[in-house]
Every structure is written in C-alpha cells, then in structure tokens.
Amino acid sequence: MGVEMEVNNGENNTTNWVPIMKKLHILNVLEKVKKIPKLICKTIWRIGKEDPRRVIHSIKVGLSLTLVSLLYLMEPLFKGFGTNAIWAVMTVVVVLEFTAGATLCKGLNRGLGTLLAGSLAFLIEYVATKTGHIFRAIFIGAALFFIGATATYMRFIPYIKKNYDYGVVIFLLTFNLITVSSYRVDNVLKIAHERFYTIAIGCGICLLMSLLIFPNWSGEDLHNFTAAKFEGLAKSIEACVNEYFSDEEQQKSKENSSDLEDPIYNGYKTVLDSKSFDETLALYASWEPRHSRHCYKFPWQQYVKLGNVLRHFGYTIVALHGCLQTEIQTPRSVRAMFKDPCIRLAMEVTKALKELGDSIRYRRHCSPEILSDHLHEALQDLNNAIKSQPKLFIGSKNNNNTNKLTLATTVVSKGQSGALNSRRVSLSSVKTDTSALLEWKSKLRGITTHENTKENKSLRPTLSKIAITSLEFSEALPFAAFASLLVEIVARLDLVIEEVEELGRIAHFKEYNYQDDDDHVVVKIDEKHSRPLQNDQLPSHDAGD
C-alpha cells in the first residue's frame, strides 16, 4: 500500500512539473522575441555607420524608382508608353549598382544587347515574311536555334565572359521575345520601340544617379583597398613577432581574454581573399570615365598585379604565423637570446610597409629612405646573434648522447604504463648522434616483434616524438624556421617595393616631399575609405529582366 502511494506521488510530481516547464519555455521564447527589434536596430545602425555611402546609395535607388514610376503613374506619360513603362522600373532595379563602374557596365551591356537583339529580330522577321506562312515558322525556329547556340557558345570566350556576359544574356532574352511574339502579334514593331525607349529611359536615370549624384568610383575603392592591405600586413607581422617572444604571463592573459578575433589572422586574411574582389573592382574601373583632377588613365591592371605580389607576400606571413602553432616549440629561454634583433627587424619591415601604404593612399612616390640602413643593420644584428650561438644550431657530438638515448630506449621497452610517466621527464633532455639513432632503431624493431598490434599503435606517436626531440638541434630548429621566414619577408619586400614604384610611375604619382610626413601625421583617414565593399555591395550577376 505504501509503495502504491509513493508511485502515485511521483506521478503527481511529474504531472505538476509539465506545465511549469511549458511556462518557462514560453517565457524564454518571449524574451528572445523582445530582443529581436533591438537587434535589428543595432544591425541597421552598424551597417550604416561602417560605410555611410550605403545610406546614400539606398536613397538614390529609392529616388530612381520614384522617377521611373512616373511613366506609369502620370496619365500623359502612360498614354505614350502604355504597359511597357514597367520595363523602365525593371531596368532600374537590375542596372543601378553601388559603384559607377558597375552601373556603367550593366547599363551599357543592357542597352547594347537590347539594340542588337532588336535589330537582328527585325531582320529575321523581314526575311521570314517573304517565305510564306508555313516556311515562316520553320525559318523562325531555325533562326532561334542558330542564334541561341551561337550566342551561348560565345559566352564561353574568356574576354566576352569577363566583359559582356550580361549583355549576351539580355541579347538572347530580347531576341527570343521579339522573334517568337512576332509570329502571333501584328504590331510587334511598335511594342519593340516602346520597350526600347523605356529601357533607355531606365538606363539613363541609372547613369545620371551613378555618375552625377554622389558617385562611388570603383577605381577609388580599389585604390583605397590596396592601400589598406599594407597596414593589415604590417599589423600581422608586428603582432606575430610580439606574440612569439611574449612571456608566459602575457600568453596566459591572452588565452583568458574574451576577444575571439586573432589580430594576426585578421591582418592578412583580407589580402589572401582579395583576388576575385580586386579583379571585379578593376573590371568595373575599366568602364569608368577619367574623373581625376589630371584625367590620367586609371592603371587598374597594375593594381591587380600589385595585389598578386601582396598575396605572395602574405603567404610568408601565414607560414610565420604557423610557427606560433607548431607542436615542437623552442624554449622561451632560447628565444630570449634573439628577441631584440627579431623585434627590431620586424619593426623596420612594418615601417616600410606603412610607408608603401601611405605612398599609395596619398598618391606620391615612396620615400628614398624606405630601405634605409636600419633595415640592413637589423638583418646584420640577427645574423650576428645566430652566429654567436653555434651550439644551438650545430649541436655537440658528445659520447654521452649515446648513453642518454640508450636510457630513453630502455624506458620505452619497459611497458606502456610505466613508460608514460618516464618519457615526460626524459624527453626534454634526450639528444643523440648517428650511432645512437642506429641503436635506437634496432631496439625499436625488437619491440615491435614482441608486442601485439594494439600496443604498437599506442606507442608509435610517442616513439616518433622521441625521434624528433632526440635531434641535437631540436630546441633551436623551430626558431631557425621562424628566423628564416623573417629574412624571407625582407627579401619579398623588395618585390613589393618594385611593384609600388611601377604603379607610381604609370599612375603619375607626385614626387616625394619631406614635408608631407609632417602633414600626414595629423591627417586621419576615414575608415570608410579603407574598407572593402561587402558582398551586398558587389553587383549581382543575375540575368533577370
């Protein structure tokens, strides 16, 4: 009887908890719903604050749609164009892009494709009407097949794919609409004229808004984006070297910090991912008119070449960053011996990168002292510091190493349980020479013949680590890789300087003036001018009409 009451009490308790859990779930959902408006407002404000040009572009699009809708809303204009006025609205939605170059590219492609398609369609219609009603359908079908296949095949040509792909799509769409509808509709010529005029009006409004009202130039975005790359690479190198030579307290404080973003990765990430972005901006910049004060031709292709050189430069920084995350690290006591020359060398490289970025941003030639004696002195100091510690990189051929390795091998052969603790103590002090390695290999073969398969699998990672840490120069080997990458960065810096000087020559940069340094100290570059376009600002490649 008592057992039944306990069971009933348990069932009642469970029943009472169900509505409570439902209420808690509903309250949790309501709290999340209340946060949605606040989150949306924060997102809208953040996007506009990052780049105020987005707000201006949105207003321009709204104003353009209002203007073209007058063709449909005003009675006199609607009588002239009829229902075809909707094509002007569709043209504004499709053509008007964030930058003037993108709008020019899509607008001219759309206008040229429509004009060519209409002309060819009228030619086909004129020939088809002379062949009779039966042969007219056959002729139209054959023309659609031939023109469609030819135009589609032309889209695979790289030059057309790059510059006129959207125009070819509009050509195919317009040609098929006019040709097919002409078989059933008698006044197709009038309809084609009205559509062409409305599309021309839509394109004209788009070009007016893009070129004359607060224009956003693709060439300027490419220019500022290229200048910002140098600053990002300089920050990556500086942060990477500082973290490599940081002490344990600084390392722990960084691990405990709430900042999830890695400054080293963020610095070179934009450079490595900029290939398609640079090519897109360069393409649209090639469509833009000469709008600078001196009306020089924009060397957009040279910016693409400079971007390629910067990406190869960034690959070296990626490898340098990888030295911070390797399994085997040089002890901090050994790193401290080379801290000052490495930090000095990194400072000189970052100084040169910032000078290159400023020369592009202000459109002037580089300072003649960009590769000053300080950089060569820092290289020489690093070289002297490495030469002063030959034993770290060459090693000492001492007979005691054989005994140490023999001892380590004996520890491994004792068994899995006792060996795990012993290895942790002896790994840091194990060193070897050639004869010791041969002896260790022979004992390893003996171990593998007497142990089962599961034990072999568990021992292999540990034995491989013993083999690596038993090298004479194992402690200095990771630092040698780090130092060699620093020297490689200096070597690749020459290639970057050559490309920047070539860009300055082609773009007619002004000569360097020593007074510019004092002027530029107080100049604050607006964040929007060094910020790349986001995905929503890049023109879409949809062929919607």
TrEMBL record:
Query: What's the superkingdom here?
Result: Eukaryota
Predominant subcellular localization, coarse grouping: membrane
The top of its lineage is:
Eukaryota, Viridiplantae, Streptophyta, Embryophyta, Tracheophyta
Q: Which organism is it from?
A: Capsicum baccatum
Give any single GO term for biological process.
Answer: malate transport
Could you tell me which Pfam families the record lists for this protein?
A: ALMT (PF11744)
Keyword Ion transport assigned? yes
- Cell compartments where the protein resides: Membrane
Assigned protein family: Belongs to the aromatic acid exporter (TC 2.A.85) family.
Q: What is this protein called?
A: Aluminum-activated malate transporter 13
- Name the membrane topology term: Multi-pass membrane protein
Gene Ontology cellular component list: membrane
PANTHER family this protein is in? ALUMINUM-ACTIVATED MALATE TRANSPORTER 10 (PTHR31086)
- Which stretches are transmembrane? 55-73, 85-105, 134-154, 166-184, 196-214
Keyword list, A-Z: Ion channel, Ion transport, Membrane, Transmembrane, Transmembrane helix, Transport
